[in-house]
Amino acid sequence: MADNVTSLFRGTAAHSPSMAALAREGGDGSGPVDFCIPCNPYFPTPAMFEDMAARLRDIITYYPSSADTITAELCNLLQLPPQAVAMGNGSTELITWIDHLLVRESLAVPVPTFGRWTDQPMETGKRVDMFPLQESGGFALDLAQYAEFIRARGTRVAVICNPNNPDGGFLPKHSLVQFMDAMADLDLIVIDESFLEFADAEAEPSVVQEAMLRPNVVVLRSLGKNFGLHGIRFGYLVANPSLAGRVRSMLPKWNLNSFAEHVVFMLKEHGAEYAQSLHQVRRDRLDMASQLSSLPGLTVYPSQGNFLFVRLPVGAEGTVVRDRMLTEHRILVRECGNKIGSSSRFLRLVVRPQVDVRRLMSGLEQVLYGTRRGAAVPEQATGTGYSSGTAAVDRLVSATNGAGIPGLAAQALDAGAPGLPLAPGTGTPLPAAAALTGGGGLPMPAPATQPPQQPAMAPQPAGLPQPAATPLRLGAPQPAGLPQPGPQSYGNQQSFGGRQPIGAPQSFGNQQPIGAPPSFGGQQPMGAPQSFGGPQQLPTAPAAQAPMPTQPPPLPAAAPAAPAAAMTGPTPPGVPARGGLTAAQVRGATAPGQELAPAPATGWPNAQSWPNAAGMGQTG
Questions:
Q1: Which intervals carry biased composition (Pro residues) (predicted)?
Q2: Could you say which DSSP state residue 315 is in?
């Protein structure tokens, strides 16, 4: 496999070769340990696989029932009206029909995100307006700025993935409902909840019920990811009966196979096992994030999905790490250099059981640090195509041709070098980017019309906490504007205007590393003490502190008749749309100390435990 690994990745239209292709190359017919494909490793249970194996002959011999029959059974399980549901041969089939039927001219989507939301509309000639999520803001999505971006571009369709793929960022339900109300004049709003079953930030985070009551909202859900069965290819969407009916009428008569039918009809007997599997994935996510954050120079971003988004140490090249992990350790990881809005410095690592995580940690230590755990061994990079979204980091990488800080390994092994500040509580030298910012405000990204290698430096306004918004009730008058959500507290974490990387070795403005004293300028790290004694104020620029306003700026209530003259013209393919701003919206993180109730010992979980009409289950 060592001689052919690069050609395997280059020879596939997908981001990674299939497990079947990797197994064929392996020689022994077995594939690598998979940290790439995000599925549930605990479901179906071994007993369920045995049942399917015993019935394999009948399953593959005979035609399945019609899609209407399978959909009706799923809706009975999820307590949804069949008229509001359309099942597809995987979520990708549904995305394709959404694009063909419901997207007329333009679509806005934050990037990085799931690739089909950018690629599919461009393949059919639509304008895709890409709203860049900045690394300097922890890849957080600010819904207010996203709405302003949509208004300025005149976009007619908006997409939000919650949690987002690949970073796992989460948006509270009440913020999404307010966004839907503020954007009620758009042709369509799509909320992709493919990974929401793995979230534990809220008991019922889904907006499925709200979508069925609105004329322009579609919620997309995945079954393959939740059930660990990507190969079966099944997913569903929920919308008002008119929208769902339009999609359903275009789907083939037998677009769902017999395996999908068999799994759907056996689910009612295995609800407790499914709920317990979600519980275990959430626990594994905490353990895996904690272990990865102990690696020097590796940044782990908080996630509500069944995966973790990590930034490699300075000088490490993602494709080199990916290839060496596969050839030397038979571990497959997702290198994110081909995702729009990301770079090869980032990996997405799927949450897996501890026995696999120990193998991952051993492989990463050897690939990144050699035999000693001091600092990343810089790989020779090409010096092209990298854009972190942070001006200081871009300047550093450009100046060193991607090789990072000279002598970084020796400095780290000596527990610090003169002239380089140390990360609090770690003894690891901070990258020059952090020193350049002085720990103060974050540099703003340059306009899209300027070359990314030389962006202009400008201090970012410090985020201001907003009053917590109460969840909206159906039938109650809704505000026209979309206020910023207030500080969200999930377990032992508190968020104030930016996502805090887990175990980050350096501080970028509002981001606070684990082990340092609590800072209310960014998301509070895991395990840090919380203060609930009174209102908190964020530190502003070093010169002075300004009082907090009591009301956030409202969203524009109505769409303009046409985009502003300065913002006209289509977005070039693969380039973030003009006018994108630094994101600072808190999207939540996994709560490290949150108590998780065990699943019922027998029988089907209650309505709140299954992915029902109200959303994810409370169990786990």
A1: 444-454
A2: T
